[in-house]
Write a structure and sequence with these properties.
Helix 4 (129-144) links the parallel strand 4 and strand 5. Strands 10, 11, 12, 13, 14, 15, 17, 18, 19 and 20 form a ten-stranded mixed beta sheet that branches. The radius of gyration is 29 Å and the shape is globular. It folds into two domains: 61-184 and 238-325, Alpha-Beta Complex (2-enoyl-CoA Hydratase, Chain A, domain 1); 335-564 and 603-627, 2-enoyl-CoA Hydratase, Chain A, domain 1 (Alpha-Beta Complex), CATH 3.90.226. The protein has 24 helices and 20 strands. 38% of the residues are buried.
């Protein structure tokens, strides 16, 4: 008689454990599947309930422009992060694309439904003066078309005030303030902390006495050369700011400057009342609360009890939806492509908000291979970064020109160092007078941690087959002969930089060296020195590129941004988060908050820059950098 063999107790335990794990796995997969299916059904239902049409814009509507966050050329977060953040009311990482603000103002200029524009700039974060001046010019054009512009603020910085000053009327809350204080640029210096406290020696190799990007790691204060150069271009930008304000408000720039110098006495005379002081300085036209301004607009426009503001209005996002709905989806006109290069330049395939040697080159290559693209505008807003990545992008600019497609560069707030490297070979370079550019120079930093490790009793020792084997190890003292090798590499990099600029700009190397050596210039100073061709913004650059490609009048071609496309899943999630049901579902979701925190980009810091500069050199003894810690 055969009896069934009893299973070993240990084996039985593991078999049972496997059954439990297998059941759990199937359960999780089923939950994920049905959860995703539920999301899809929600989006379908929302789309059906919202309808496919856009609500018609009514006559005598006020366009309310109340931007929150930084003014950027390109979003730095992916669509999912932005949509989820907006659904949850997270305003910490808000951004407004400059192109969106400009096209809204341009559309409002010709839109008969828009009667006036209300500017509320309290939550607009500081940006560079070049982009702000571009918006200011658009506001002036809007006023010139006959549309009234009213600005209101509870409290304004001098950055925000540059835009508010363009309005027909500027109102300030009686408890608010507007202070013009001037431009300053101050940085932290780490030499004592790094070298004396921590025992970290930073070896700096550079060409150019004005190349000050790495000074904080080797000095305790700014060098005299750095102070001289910074004050030179900053004074130029500041004097232009005062002139812009004076022209908009019909004031004397000298009186504005005098009001800043005598600010303590002026505020004391106003009884410490900052709003009253702003009124006395003629920076604002009146002191009104938000409710009083809304009542004024309701009287001038159309009262609307259903609107929170009390008058008929449309916000910026809703108006952009209106503008987009008027576009034809089948536009076969020839194209002027715009490729945005914003942020630090580094190697590899990088997301929006940073410039990748591989990813940005791929966008330019796409424009070159697309037969519908007849010309390209490269919009640059960058402090620079890695030399090799910059060279990869420059080569694609040259390839576009060789393919018969004109390339025009439009510099934004900042196009310095590596930002200038990728710009120099364009057919034409446009910049605002207040753009920060130049900084033609090269440097490298090699930190050494041998003294820091010695403090905690850690030492490095071993053998090598030659005197240079392991010589670039940062845990060993730097051999002077190795320093000589690095300096030779940097010297060659600087010669490459100035040589390429000389060839691209049809100048001698000697004349380029005179305006290079790491020195930073304003856009106006750069044009005087032959580094920039024309003053103008993005629209001027687009018009130039179209003319070079013989595309005719503006209506004969269209402008298309070439950017990395979001994945289908990202588009789905962005659409869901942007719906009413999606906003409700995500508003109180701890999981969504965790996902958002993980996807938002980290803040760049000077110490992080050092970390990036010394790692992942791909076998190279040192990474050459063309970077500028300039701007505000």
């Amino acid at each position: 008689m055969n009896y069934p063999q009893r299973r070993n107790p240990i084996a039985a335990f593991f078999v049972g454990l496997w059954d439990v794990m297998n059941f759990t796995r199937r359960l999780i997969l089923n939950l994920l599947f049905f959860g995703l299916l539920f999301f899809v059904l929600l989006v379908i239902v929302v789309a059906a309930t919202r309808g496919s049409g856009v609500k018609p814009l009514q006559d005598r509507t006020t366009l309310v422009i109340a931007p929150e966050g930084r003014l950027v050329e390109q979003y730095s977060a992916d669509p999912v992060s932005r949509a989820v953040g907006k659904a949850m009311g997270d305003t910490g990482a808000d951004e407004i694309q400059l192109r969106d603000l400009l096209r809204a103002l341009e559309a409002a200029q010709k839109d008969k439904k828009i009667e006036r524009v209300l500017l509320q700039l309290d939550k607009l974060q500081p940006s560079g003066f070049a982009s702000m001046r571009e918006v200011a010019a658009a506001l002036q054009t809007l006023r010139g078309s006959g549309k009234q512009v009213v600005a209101f603020s509870e409290s304004m910085s001098q950055w925000q005030y540059l835009l508010a000053a363009q309005a027909d009327e500027v109102y300030l809350d009686p408890m608010g303030s507007v202070l013009l204080e001037g431009l300053g640029r101050y940085r932290q210096y780490f030499r004592t902390g790094l070298q004396e406290k921590l025992g970290v020696d930073v070896n700096l190799f550079k060409v150019g006495e004005y190349k000050s990007a790495a000074e904080p790691y080797v000095l305790d204060a700014a060098s005299p050369d750095a102070k001289e150069a910074d004050l030179y271009w900053m004074n130029d930008v500041w004097q232009r700011y005062l002139a812009d304000i004076a022209a908009a408000r019909k004031l004397d720039p000298a009186e504005l400057a005098a009001g800043i110098e005598t600010m303590p006495e002026g505020i004391a005379a106003a009884g410490g009342d900052l709003a009253r002081f702003a009124l006395q300085q003629k920076l604002v036209d009146g002191l009104k609360t938000r409710e009083e301004v809304e009542k004024l607009l309701a009287e001038r426009g159309v009262a609307d009890s259903d609107a929170d503001e009390g008058f008929r209005n449309i916000n910026l996002d809703a108006y952009l939806t209106q503008v987009d709905s008027r576009k034809s989806p089948l536009d076969k006109r020839p194209q002027v492509a715009v490729v945005v290069a914003e942020g630090e330049i580094a190697g590899g395939d990088l997301p929006a908000g940073r410039i990748g040697g591989v990813s940005t080159s791929a966008l330019l290559r796409h424009a070159r291979e697309d037969d519908d693209v007849k010309a390209v505008v490269l919009r640059v807003d960058s402090p620079g970064g890695e030399v090799f990545a910059s060279e990869q992008i420059r080569r694609e600019v040259v390839a576009l020109k060789q393919a018969g497609k004109p390339v025009v560069v439009s510099m934004g707030d900042l196009a310095a160092s590596g930002g200038y490297w990728i710009s120099m070979d364009a057919d034409r370079i446009y910049a605002d007078e207040s753009t920060v550019t130049g900084s033609i120079g090269i440097f490298a930093m090699v930190p050494n941690f041998s003294r820091a490790l010695d403090k905690i009793g850690v030492h490095t020792d071993g053998v090598g087959t030659t005197r240079f084997a392991g010589a670039f190890d940062m845990t060993r003292p730097l051999d002077p002969a190795v320093g000589q090798v690095i300096q030779s590499v940097i010297d060659k990099g600087y010669a490459d930089f100035t040589g390429k600029v000389a060839k691209a700009r049809d100048r001698s190397v000697e004349s380029v060296d005179e305006v290079a050596r790491g020195r930073v210039w304003s856009g106006a100073q750069a044009r005087d020195r032959g580094l920039v061709d024309e003053f103008g913004g993005l629209q001027d650059a687009v018009a130039d590129a179209a003319e070079r490609a013989s595309l005719g009048e503006p209506g004969k071609y269209r402008v298309r941004y070439i950017e990395k496309a979001a994945s289908p899943f990202a588009q789905f999630m962005a659409g869901f988060a942007g719906s009413r049901i999606g906003s409700w579902a995500l508003a109180d979701s701890a999981v969504a908050r965790m996902m958002l925190a993980r996807t938002l980009p980290e803040m760049d810091t000077q110490l992080r820059f050092v970390e990036q500069a010394v790692k992942d050199r791909n076998g190279a003894p040192v990474r050459s950098l063309a970077y500028c810690f300039c701007g505000f």
